[in-house]
Specification:
Layout lengths: L1 E7 L3 H9 L10 E8 L6 H7 L3 E4 L4 H11 L4 E4 L4 E3 L3 H11 L4 E8 L3 H18 L8 E4 H7 L9 H13 L4 E10 L2 H6 L1 H16 L4 H8 L1
Parallel strand pairs: 1-2, 1-4, 2-3, 6-8
Antiparallel strand pairs: 4-7, 5-8
């Protein structure tokens, strides 16, 4: 059984599509429960989640804290961590099923795509996938499918407002090696709103600078304020 954990904070615009995609055409072979860890939404996100049959967990705002709380409430043998503005394509069920059947000590992430942006969006997504392959650094927009055993072994998500995704993947790779996760072909289409707001090139440069500063020891709390 997969427990899907979704952190939300005013995610109503795309949350319904995210939730609908988890059971394409009513297929419920893998998704045993959906847990929405809400950080204090005021836009109807909680109501949307309830209508979809999700279990609601409240937590202090911050993806790391929310993901940690959602995982603590989950009962599945596998955990799928997914952002509320990310929509998986229908084939994710088959890809995830095949992965779980032969996974061993391996997690999985999906192939990144954006919901807008044309050529620029495709180039940014391609760059992200190159980073994922070369440096073993997928971001949370790609989802993370991980067994409960692996998740517990590396110590769960940390209470971080930014780069909680990088932190847990680095711990997975540190414990299980470069083959700690597999990239699944199914696309995870995420919102390009942040990129459209400031420009694709500018956003990529900004993200990479923040990541470099994080690796150099800068506080995730301070970086999170600049990220927004």
């Amino acid at each position: 059984m997969i427990s899907v954990v979704i952190p939300t904070l005013n995610a109503a615009e795309r949350l319904a599509a995210c939730l609908d995609a988890l059971r394409p055409e009513g297929d419920d072979r893998f998704v045993g429960e959906i847990i929405v860890a809400d950080g204090g939404s005021s836009d109807g996100s909680v109501e949307i989640a309830k209508r979809a049959g999700a279990h609601i967990v409240t937590a202090p705002a911050g993806r790391g804290e929310q993901l940690r709380a959602g995982a603590a409430a989950a009962g599945g043998d596998w955990l799928l961590f997914l952002h509320g503005d990310t929509v998986l394509e229908p084939r994710w069920v088959a890809d995830a099923g095949a992965h779980m059947g032969k996974a061993g000590d391996r997690a999985a992430v999906f192939t990144l795509a954006f919901d807008a942006g044309g050529f620029a969006g495709r180039m940014v997504a391609a760059g992200a996938m190159m980073r994922t392959g070369m440096f073993r650094l997928p971001y949370g927009d790609q989802g993370l499918l991980v067994s409960r055993t692996m998740y517990d072994a590396v110590g769960a998500y940390r209470s971080m407002p930014l780069f909680e995704d990088v932190d847990i993947v680095r711990r997975l790779v540190g414990k299980y090696g470069r083959n700690a996760f597999r990239v699944l072909p199914a696309r995870a289409t995420t919102s390009a709103a942040r990129y459209r707001r400031v420009g694709y090139v500018r956003r990529v440069i900004r993200n990479n600078i923040l990541l470099a500063r994080y690796f150099a020891g800068a506080s995730p709390e301070k970086l999170a304020k600049e990220y927004r």
